[in-house]
């Protein structure tokens, strides 16, 4: 069995308003940071998982992302995978 | 209807289960039974309410974890049999997360937790959940949510409009919901999800009775 470290990024789809991102953008500007054109907040989920090779692990992670980690009505996801 | 029993689902973190039970039993004389989320035996209830609250602490997303409970797994067959299911607030979020209703509910546009009475237009007669025949086509119900902004893509919205699945719309949209949507039904009409709380408007002494009709309609066949 191989072990993998997976980092999943879940983001609101571009068409979905992100009020928390807007509020943070506003605070960033008040802090004095200039030039911020856009600020959106997502989630990062770290998973350690084992399986027989990368393909099998990718299948498991795809299922997790699609059915649990993200609500694909409003969110997109992507992930990176590193063999340990 | 003497033996008609409404199951009120209790998740860890539900907090409107007792309110729903009080409104049904005390105001409408309808028998209720609490259903723990780990139960998958729905054989002795005739309708189900998924009450408001914060199931599983709203972890990940509101309703996302509740979706995997044994009770929600058993709900598919219950819904297919035509029995009625009402999801209120967190219950609505669970119904969208689990795919019984389209769309999703996300953070209010102004990021506030909004606790207020809102005016709502009754839009559709699907499922007879609201008093469409009455003179009054507007009702007033309380809302209490931080994540009640209904969102769906344009194709879904068209489907909702074309098939008359939009049950309620806010008169003054408080949370940024698409098309002012406050509640929707499935195509059959036996599943209703809404953000406002009908169980909190069942007695004049607590501010109104506009919620009675919806709870009473749980006993419709």
Named CATH architecture of chain A = 2-Layer Sandwich
Helical element count of chain B?
Answer: 5
Oligomer: heterodimer
Helix content of chain A: 25-40%
How would you sum up the major sheet of chain B?
Answer: 9 strands, mixed
Span from first to last CA of chain A?
Answer: 11 Å
Strand order of the largest sheet of chain B: 2-1-3-4-11-10-9-6-7
CATH superfamily of chain A: Phosphoribosylformylglycinamidine synthase subunit PurS
Q: State the shape of chain B.
A: globular
Structural class of chain A: alpha+beta
Shape of chain A: elongated
Number of domains of chain A: 1
Strand order of the largest sheet of chain A: 2-1-3
By secondary-structure content and strand pairing, the structural class of chain B works out as alpha/beta
Could you state the order of secondary-structure elements of chain B as H and E?
EHEEHEHEEEEHEEEH
Biggest sheet descriptor of chain A: 3 strands, antiparallel
One letter per element, helices H and strands E, the order of chain A comes to: EHEHE
Q: Any idea of the CATH topology of chain A? A: Mth169, Chain: A
Keywords (chain A): ATP-binding, Cytoplasm, Ligase, Nucleotide-binding, Purine biosynthesis
Subunit structure (chain A): Part of the FGAM synthase complex composed of 1 PurL, 1 PurQ and 2 PurS subunits.
Organism (chain A): Prochlorococcus marinus str. MIT 9302
GO molecular function (chain A): ATP binding; phosphoribosylformylglycinamidine synthase activity
